[in-house]
Amino acid sequence: MAGPPPTAEEPREGPERPPEGRSARKHRAILSAAGELFLRQGYLGTSVDEIAASAGVSKQTVYKHFDDKQHLFTAVVFASIDHVGRPFYEEIHRLEDSDDLEADLRELAKRLSAVATDQRLLQVRRLVIGEAARFPELGHAYYERAVDRTTRSLEARFRGLAERGLLRLDDPYLAAQTFIWLVLSVPLNRAMFSPETETDAAGLRRIADEAVRIFLAAYGATPASPRRGARPPAQA
Amino acid sequence: MAGPPPTAEEPREGPERPPEGRSARKHRAILSAAGELFLRQGYLGTSVDEIAASAGVSKQTVYKHFDDKQHLFTAVVFASIDHVGRPFYEEIHRLEDSDDLEADLRELAKRLSAVATDQRLLQVRRLVIGEAARFPELGHAYYERAVDRTTRSLEARFRGLAERGLLRLDDPYLAAQTFIWLVLSVPLNRAMFSPETETDAAGLRRIADEAVRIFLAAYGATPASPRRGARPPAQA
DNA sequence: ATGGAACTAAACTGTCCAGTACAGTTCCGA
DNA sequence: TCGGAACTGTACTGGACAGTTTAGTTCCAT
User: Fold this and answer.
1) How far apart (Å, rounded) are the C-alpha atoms in residues B132 and B142?
2) Which residue in A6, A7, A83, B8 is a FRET match for B140, CA 20 to 30 A apart?
3) Which tens digit of pLDDT belongs to each residue from A99-152?
4) Does the structure show a pLDDT above 80 at A11?
5) To the nearest whole number, what is the mean pLDDT of chain B?
6) Between vectors from CA B179 to CA B173 and to CA B181, what angle results, nearest 5°?
7) Where are the beta strands (DSSP E) in B36-177?
8) Tell me, in Å, how far CA of B133 is from C1' of C14?
9) Is the model's pLDDT at B231 over the cut of 60?
10) Burial of A49 (0-12, 13-18, 19+ CB in 10 A)
11) How many CB atoms lie within 10 A of CB A20?
12) Which of B80, B107, B79 is nearest to B95 (CA)?
């Protein structure tokens, strides 16, 4: 508990990995088992013996690969964080040269809320928040890589759209934050307090559509966005 | 860990308490010390011995007042949760009969963000989220009492304002959620990952003002809310 | 002032855990 | 095939912790 702040120990897997010797295999097995257990039981609630057993590995091997429990934990969370950042990141790029901004924003909003309500991802988020006091650097890293990077990606897209006259905004970063949280606030903050609760797909769609309407009302170039029709334009 | 789900054990202090015998005093001392320690170190990170010592009380007395550690924990958090809900709740009532809606919303937004960035409150939030898997009822109670109750209070206010023609909305609950999260998302979610970081007062004001502008653009009765001060939209 | 309830201090039980030690086994590249 | 690196199993150290027990002390209402 009084140990020095462990620095991250990344998984270190290059894009190619054809041979993968015994050592690398064990390393991955430990990370995987530790991820599963830490996510389910928290940091203090998980013992190294448990991790070793679950990974099919001796405790000694765990300590060969990771200095101590804290390092193992940070390695696990950093690996999960990279899993988190990527999908958001890629979705956003499709907005690059949109013809029908409203439709494309709606699509993006739905993809965002789908990604963000993934159960495993929610549990990582809970875990990082819960351990933020014990591992402050982990909290910062999570915010930086999962939240801020996504926002900046969207910011760049919005800046381009503003230059094309499709959006009116003078602070694209703030606008990006607004968009993301209009979509995610309600489901994400509800999910934080209700583990193992099914996500309400219809509710997500409704919130995503309303988020786009609000966003375009505030930042759209066309003064009159279609009056709120609640449900998507079709059906009814 | 396999015990039955403990039901809440509220502090049970009536509005009057002039005598407060020894027993009640000890009870309060335990709750107070436990609150401090649980909030700082988490559930598993805090021992009952520690709580007893910090409360200036023998361990036996702790167990006289609370069945076990789980019950003590839920009692502590429930007490904190009621602290959380109240201030929000009261701020909102002032919106009842507004003459200058924009100014009053701005005021409300600033008060909300000030309340929500209170360090102790943030720590309760982190704690409940972090232990949500271990204590699901706690998560539900927090959401119900801190989030949902506030939203419903604002919903009632918005419904009144819509009837007076000051707002245009067909789902006041959704509008209330939107307003609250426009104001709180950014500071709250940043704070979740960065304990012991100073809150940026200027940033809060800026976000609060922008939140009101966006809200009125989406739900305001007057079609053109004053364009955000700053420069005119274009720049290139 | 006194009897009982509440409290204290300390020791104890049974369990769990991080991290180490060590002797023996398996893997794998040269 | 052979030698070293990596791994296994088990046991151990030293400590922590939830919850109980006991014997004695303090408080306070009657």
Assistant:
1) 10
2) A83
3) 899 999 999 999 999 988 999 999 999 999 999 999 999 999 999 998 999 999
4) no
5) 86
6) 100
7) none
8) 27
9) no
10) exposed
11) 11
12) B107
pLDDT tens per residue across span A171-183: 999 999 999 999 9
pLDDT higher than 60, residue A68: yes
Q: Are B59 and B52 in contact (CB under 8 A)?
A: yes
Mean pLDDT of chain A: 86
> Does the pLDDT of residue B83 top 50, yes or no?
yes
Q: Say yes or no: Cβ of B68 under 7 A from any atom of strand D.
A: yes
Q: How many helices (H) and strands (E) does chain A have?
A: 10, 0
Which tokens in the block code for residue B150?
């506030």
Contact call for residues B179 and B147 (beta carbons, < 8 A): no
In 3-state terms, what secondary structure has residue B41? helix
* Main-chain phi, psi angles of B113, to 5 degrees: -70, -30
Q: In 3D, which of B103, B119, B140, B69 has the Cα closest to residue B226?
A: B103
Phi-psi region of A209 (alpha: psi -120 to 50; beta: other; left: phi over 0): alpha
CB neighbour class for A25 (10 Å; exposed up to 12, middle 13-18, buried from 19)? exposed
Residue pair B177/A186 in contact (Cβ under 8 Å)? The answer is yes
Backbone angle region of A56, left / alpha / beta, with phi > 0 → left and psi within -120 to 50 → alpha? left
Which residue of B81, B189, B215 is the best one to mutate when testing the A interface, meaning the one whose CB has the most A CBs within 10 A?
B189
A37 CA → C16 C1’, Å = 17
**Two tokens at B124?**
């309760």
Distance CA A127, CA A132 (A): 8
- Exposure letters B88-116 (e unless 16+ CB within 10 A, then b): bbebbeebeebeebbebbbbbbbbbbbbb
Instruction: Round to whole Å and give the CA distance between B196 and B128.
Output: 18
A7 touches strand C (CB under 7 A): no
Residues in a beta bridge with A220: A167
Distance CA A121, CA A46 (A): 19
pTM score, whole prediction: 0.86
Query: Between chains, do B210 and A133 touch, taking CB under 8 Å as contact?
Result: no
Model confidence at B69: pLDDT above 80? yes
Q: What is the 3-state secondary structure (H, E, C) of A159-171?
A: HHHHHCCCECCCC
User: What is the share, in percent, of chain B residues with pLDDT greater than 70?
Assistant: 86
